[in-house]
């Protein structure tokens, strides 16, 4: 057994059964070894950002890590932006980064680079597996490290000779560290804050954004009147009819100020106190209202859901959660607007959908339009590195082949990782991509105003404009093997969206949704 | 004057007049400041790999750096692969990487990441400009550092508050370090090696691959019989009728063994002794023939061209260089083959063309087919990080608007940075892209055999196959605003190539060139 075979066998034994791959020469023995371990599925991406984003989407839905296969430093570099998003989502991922053979590194061949420095920027787990006999053990350690609560990026650097050498040994799985429980004293203290009679906000994040956490949060809110919010960008938020509807904290500081107006206490569970996404001249970075006190129920990595249940048992033992009733917008008609496209999605969102949401400015009205839709999951842009939507939708569809995936995708963010559409076609994944094509970096038009960087002259505006030339996403998609249509009215969008959902395999709709500004 | 204005003014004063940009919120003051410095041209890319590759192509042709504008760590990460290639090309580039405001960093907002670690992997010059009044001086230092011989990546990290703060001061340009001259003793020693009567190879690289270096090399070879080669992947190689024709060292170790067979001395000038691109089991990494001695005429960063001229003055004072005669292949006919597509390019390559060569396996016969074509420049994949061709062609066309740019582009490498086609359309650049569409990572099929990673099973082969689904590059190009055609015969390719060159603006030809293996 060579090193690559011991690696893949160990990964599979530890529950890692998909490897999103963009290999090169130094990974050829890994590629060859795939055929010796039938349980491992190799999924090809044509760009590493598609690969790492897919691994993120996969683990958010599967609840266990995928592996990635990347080619040296440049491959890891290309994958870095979506690994950044995955880091912020606390998604477990096991990167296998091929490197030159150990004895070859001293020659400083063209592809030699400082992989360790690049990997270190992810602030996760990094190890270089230099000896064939250790590769299995290092792989088991990587899978455990990736899954240690709350989840992180584990990067195993695999020199070619460690991969091709004989004498590989598989390693039994290492159990990852479970989330730490919150002690009873903290739970009691939080219960006291909730009973203080003062205005309190409760901000939940991480795994608490799934059903059990939402139910506990709703019970607490029902009895105490606390203002409950999900963090601005949850990795996975469960929503829809039959679940408590917990609003997300806004992206703009102005929204958050409105949401937290008058609050004297901010309780956080599984997330951090709110901060501004960016700094703005003369505006605060810390979004906790002045004079309000922060209380930590559960740190990131602690069992926030258990803690919320413990608090609910104290303050709301006999209170039922408030569940969202089923309700959908009426199907609209007429030319597409920033409002009516969201209503189309709300009206037609299928049962058990997974929404990969990178609609950005165009998606402002989506939460309201889909609140009463059938139960669904929303995956969001946790790290702010755009180009996440198409790959994450791809990975989510690999993880949940029986569920429809809907990717709401702004045009400005689509080109970073557009090639993931090809992987959707290759794997025949049930992903419907709706491109919100407003021909602009609309978010930046807003931000140019917000940072006070006036006057905005012609050159500045030109750098935020995507209309010269207009992109034809239907053609791009078809070129990548994904059937595509174009919608300019709500009626067309509805008809095309329904049809795309009804047919197996990927589809793309280029929707001419005008910009909000 | 704010920091951003002082930065752009200082860049322009130092000769940096193009900024390839993919900005975000933290760069909005830089974007706004573009309108206050008319000499700076902002060129928008839709993905950072397109931006950094364009900066590489620009500087290779312009001989001076462009700036890039990148959005925090993920933006730099996305740009890293083509910065790696630029580093290997010794291309001067000035990265401006926006960061959060200094006081905002402690909040660990979603886009916070370790930019310094990522930048450090480029082994160039990195500085964080924390105070508005220093931004101008830091920019001047960055431009000088980028241009210090032999050229490198300079990365200036610009916190948003340093950018928007008032009190910016422009700084006068700092002269960069010129290449160091080679001393007379070394020149004499090399002349003795050349006169030894033993078999000698002379390997030139860097700036020595341009006309003056080639002329000196040819004179030396003409009188001494030395086997002269250009390095395998030169940043910019001048070729064609009227110039000495100096073969490049091969990519495969087997080719190099053939080229250097029997050689007892290897002289290097402006490059390093040859090493294998990758390691292969039981094959040497060091490609200097066993027992041969290495002699350094000029280290990388020294004045190799001057040194070659000094050697020529000693050993070949009255010898003229041997110049390539004009000669072109006949225009071929019939279905496209690995041979005849190269003949089409050789037959029709226009005067003063710039070839951005990422043809990989499909391009094996291009050097022979174009050797006697009109004088042209060839830009090559210096660092081995694929996805370089389309962006480098884009940047070269910005630098040399009066010259035709021809991008020979393999399909497997095209998807990494495909969005650079949009920038070509936006800027109406004279780039003709020929996609060599063989529906495979053909190089990896070769490498899978070469590394001895047999047996190659169905899963392994599937990861090297791009035919499921086939990509339609003509549709993709049209979707990005570039007119495109499809060629399946040499006649069609010739007709479409000639037409694309005759019309202004970008064009793409999807050429169905079968794989060599």
TrEMBL record, chains A, B:
Q: Which residues form the Thiamine pyrophosphate enzyme TPP-binding domain?
A: 374-510
The record's InterPro entries line, in alphabetical order, gives: THDP-binding (IPR029061), Thiamin_PyroP_enz_TPP-bd_dom (IPR012001), TPP_enz (IPR045229), TPP_enzyme_TPP-bd (IPR011766)
Pfam families per UniProt: TPP_enzyme_C (PF02775), TPP_enzyme_N (PF02776)
Specify the Thiamine pyrophosphate enzyme N-terminal TPP-binding domain's residue ranges: 1-109
Determine if DNA repair is one of this entry's keywords.
no
Q: Which SUPFAM superfamilies match?
A: Thiamin diphosphate-binding fold (THDP-binding)
Q: Name one GO molecular function term.
A: flavin adenine dinucleotide binding
Tree of life domain: Bacteria
Per UniProt, the keywords (alphabetical) are: Thiamine pyrophosphate
Similarity-based family: Belongs to the TPP enzyme family.
Record protein name field: Acetolactate synthase-1/2/3 large subunit
Q: What species is given as this protein's source?
A: Amycolatopsis saalfeldensis
